[in-house]
Design goal:
InterPro entries: 6-hairpin_glycosidase_sf (IPR008928), 6hp_glycosidase-like_sf (IPR012341), Gal_mutarotase_sf_dom (IPR011013), GH65_N (IPR037018), Glyco_hydro_65_C (IPR005194), Glyco_hydro_65_M (IPR005195), Glyco_hydro_65_N (IPR005196), Malt_Pase/Glycosyl_Hdrlase (IPR017045). By secondary structure, this protein is an alpha+beta fold. Among the domains are: about 280 residues, Beta-galactosidase, Chain A, domain 5; about 55 residues, Maltose phosphorylase, domain 3, CATH 2.60.420. About 35% of the residues lie in helices and about 25% in strands. Strands 1, 2, 9, 10, 11, 12, 14, 15, 16, 17 and 20 form an 11-stranded antiparallel β-sheet that branches. Strands 8-7-13-19-18 form a 5-stranded antiparallel β-sheet, with no helix packed on it. Helix 11 packs parallel to helix 16. The longest helix is centred in the middle third of the chain and has 24 residues. The protein starts with a strand and ends with a helix. The model has no long low-confidence stretch (mean pLDDT about 95). Bound molecules: beta-D-glucopyranose. Beta-D-glucopyranose (BGC) binds next to loops.
Length: about 775
């Protein structure tokens, strides 16, 4: 872990250039707008180590699965988010010498991600071998208002000479995915044209026929005056460029404004790509860089109005939480229900940019509370649309009915190829059911149940019904051969969490059926018919709920992670010599699987989801047993522990866990940020403040708060949307103030007292007196 970024409340700042941390910075300083994302690669040529990444949301490649030994049921491919046309490129030559920071000296380097405004900028002085020095200032953004548009301002000033500055903006589609299974290139050229005013390049994927057209245009200015230049254009395979040479005296600034539109066949017909791309580009260019920038600033101001968290007294924590919120808002804006949130967002290739249970378990709460409820609803509808595929997936594995959602997917098909995850980590089905409950409980949108929810719940319940079996020996239903959220043990029997979430899904499905029968009878009958739901099935679910087997240790008063857990040698992590950690980089997989060490919350995941069904003592006993043997080697782990620690009043532990989640990428805790940021766990960071320190829950149509302040902070405040009102909750040592920023009244409970915050009203309560109760 190396801390090299400067602390600042609104920006991420790097104040010197170090090739050793460049790939980490490329991840951290990524920009995106939900439709495209761009790693912080340099515009100019860079021959040092770099992970190129220009991603178009929803454009992926089914890369043929690579495994040592094929097993029946394996998916054919692993979906990859595609590195597509490099649209940011601008080669720079100074008197014929290429500007390349791997080869030039670099002075006064500053890179800044301005999270308030949504821009990435860079400033440096490059020193060439012949002693010539140029200053470069570059700013770029992908527009949050115009989803296809990216804009760059790149300015070069000769500092100690007069000479020729040649700028070569280009579009380069000859790119590769680093994680390509067979080192294959995934793109074919369709058409291109390089021209003085507008150039374009259309590529299509070798499989699935995704088309992406990138269109570019540019203007060049010297000392603020636009130049009338006839660029030299050129083309080659998957590449178009234009070349403009400008004579500049010492101190004169030559600036290029490069505008790009990236359009994909996901949103436009094949015959329209070039015309639509050109149209969008021309509109953006006509507006001009400054106007686009103003739009960008206004767009981000709106996002911050809904989701900002302010922490007083701790810049490091403030910067970290804003970074997490910023990356989440850059990744998904909810306006397209075909899209989802990959564990690395648009910041790297790892995890293929695909959808995991992370979305339902971690991201849904973030979008529920920080955006209009239609956004979280779209995330749910995404799974509804994949229901048929989930049913096919269950059939493929041999189940005559029910739906098994994939562990990893782009289009509803499973595309993960480790048997212990694909076949066994079936708890993901439970998280998808839980998200429906969570959404309806939080928003009150019960109509969702009859529109979409019940069908998903019923098919998941059917899957659980098929997956359990009756154990004569135990006189109970058991679930054999599973992997729980803790991927550090596989093929275990009766993972408590999986059994619990399975039974809970059936319970909730029955509850929803009862509700619909009583309240929307006609639709209920229609759905029962559509699902061909039999009374024997619901009776069987009841029987399973009543007779599910749960491993417990009576003596310790804890739930057991799985049947054989106590056969393991239990030794707290703190007694391991530090050189063992992280285990996944230092131990054989075999050793990890046999050990007691837990990758991420497992039993505790269940106690978190079903928190209202377990008392504090039960939570405490389980936390005290499991946390000391948890290594938190999944980024999804510390946040959940922070939330439960808050509930238990373990303030120091909560803060320790919070720091680990909040600055995971900024401080490269897991030594893997160069692969991309841990985007889905960023939602967990948000949860650890709101649900942890804020103690926020939704129950009985009220928003419940039980806040405390970590001793390192003087105050904190956060925004939350609840039932069409937006509240600003501010917590100081003395008071809790809730300000309603809308005209819709809100019902809230603070500790055990209920209040109504009138539209545009405010309530202030004394914390000490309430907390003490
Ligand atoms: C975790 C999974 C998670 C995946 C993607 C893994 O390391 O164990 O729970 O879904 O990462 O974030």
């Amino acid at each position: 872990m190396k801390q090299y970024l400067k602390l600042d409340e609104w920006s991420i700042i790097e104040e010197s250039f170090d090739p050793a941390t460049h790939e980490i910075s490329e991840s951290i300083f990524s920009i995106g707008n939900g439709f495209m994302g761009q790693r912080a690669n340099f515009e100019e040529q860079y021959s040092g180590k770099s992970l190129q990444g220009s991603y178009m949301a929803g454009v992926y490649y089914p890369d043929k699965t690579r495994v040592g030994w094929w097993k029946n049921g394996y998916p054919e491919y692993f979906a990859k988010v595609l590195n597509s046309t490099n649209w940011i490129g601008i080669n720079v030559f100074i008197d014929g010498n290429v500007l390349d920071l791997a080869k030039c000296g670099v002075k006064d380097f500053v890179r800044e991600l301005n999270m308030k405004e949504g821009t990435l900028s860079r400033r440096f002085v490059a020193v060439f071998e012949d002693g010539k020095e140029v200053q470069v200032e570059a700013v770029r953004f992908v527009s949050v208002k115009r989803h296809e548009i990216g804009a760059i301002r790149y300015a070069v000033t000769p500092l100690n000479f007069s000479g020729t500055i040649k700028l070569v903006p280009y579009l380069d589609g000859d790119v590769q995915n680093k994680d390509s299974n067979y080192e294959e290139k995934f793109w074919l050229e369709v058409e291109k044209e390089a021209a003085a005013d507008i150039s374009y390049l259309t590529l299509k994927t070798k499989k699935l026929d995704f088309h992406v057209t990138s269109v570019m245009s540019f203007d060049i200015f010297k000392n603020g005056t636009k130049l009338d230049i006839q660029p030299v254009i050129s083309e080659c395979e998957k590449y178009v460029s234009a070349e403009a040479a400008v004579e500049a005296n010492q101190g004169e600034t030559v600036a290029i404004y490069k505008y790009v539109a990236n359009v994909t066949s996901r949103n436009f017909g094949l015959g329209e790509l070039v015309t639509e791309g050109k149209k969008l580009l021309e509109e953006a260019k006509a507006a001009g860089f400054d106007a686009l920038l103003q739009e960008q600033i206004a767009g981000w101001a709106d996002k911050w109005k809904e989701s900002d968290i302010i922490i007083e007294g701790d810049v490091s924590a403030q910067q970290a939480i804003r970074f997490n919120i910023f990356q989440l808002n850059q990744t998904y804006d909810g306006s397209d229900d075909r899209l989802n949130i990959g564990p690395k967002g648009f910041t790297g290739e790892k995890y293929g940019g695909s959808t995991y249970w992370d979305t339902e378990a971690y991201c849904v709460p973030f979008y529920l509370s920080t955006a209009d409820s239609s956004i979280a609803r779209n995330l749910l509808i995404y799974r509804y649309k994949h229901l048929e595929k989930a049913k096919e997936n269950a059939r493929k594995l041999g189940f005559p009915k029910g739906a098994l959602y994939p562990m990893v997917t782009m289009n509803g098909e499973e595309c993960h190829n480790e048997w212990e995850i694909t076949f066994e980590e079936i708890h993901r089905n439970g998280a998808i059911a839980y998200a429906i409950y969570n959404y309806v409980n939080y928003t009150g949108d019960k109509a969702y149940l009859s529109q979409y929810g019940l069908e998903v719940l019923a098919e998941i319940s059917r899957f659980w019904e098929m997956r359990v079996n009756w154990s004569e020996a135990k006189g109970k239903y058991v679930m054999l051969g599973v992997t729980g959220p803790n991927e550090y043990e596989n093929n275990v029997n009766n993972n408590w969490y999986t059994n619990r979430i399975a039974a809970w899904t059936m319970e909730y499905t029955l509850e929803v059926l009862d509700y619909l029968k009583a309240n929307e009878n006609a639709r209920y009958l229609e759905l029962v018919d559509k699902l061909k739901l039999q009374d024997e099935e619901t009776a069987q679910w009841r029987h399973i709920i009543a007779n599910m087997y749960y491993p417990v240790d009576e003596e310790r008063g804890i739930f057991l992670q799985q049947d054989g857990f106590l056969d393991k040698e239990i030794l707290p992590v703190k007694e391991l010599a530090p050189e063992n950690l992280p285990l996944n980089q230092n131990w054989s997989w075999d050793r990890i699987l046999r050990s007691c060490y837990i990758k991420q919350a497992d039993v505790l995941q269940g106690l978190y989801f079903l928190g209202d069904r377990y008392d504090l003592e039960t939570k405490k006993r389980n936390f005290d047993f499991y946390e000391p043997i948890t290594v938190h080697e999944s980024s999804l782990s510390p946040c959940l522990h922070a939330i439960i620690a808050c509930e238990l009043g373990y303030q120091e532990k909560a803060y320790e866990m919070y720091l680990r989640t909040a600055r995971l990428d900024l401080d490269n805790y897991n030594n893997d940020t160069e692969d991309g940021c841990h985007t889905t766990s960023m939602a967990g960071t948000w949860m650890s403040i709101i649900q942890g320190f804020g103690g926020l829950r939704a129950a009985n149509d009220e928003l419940v708060l039980r806040p405390f302040i970590p001793s390192h902070w003087t105050s904190f405040s956060f925004k939350v949307m609840f039932r069409n009102s937006r509240l600003n909750v501010s917590v100081t040592d003395e008071n809790i103030t809730v300000t309603n920023e809308t005209d819709v009244p809100a019902a809230i409970r603070i500790y055990d007292n209920s209040y109504t915050v009138a539209g545009n009203g405010e309530i202030k309560v004394e914390r000490a007196s309430l907390a003490a109760k």
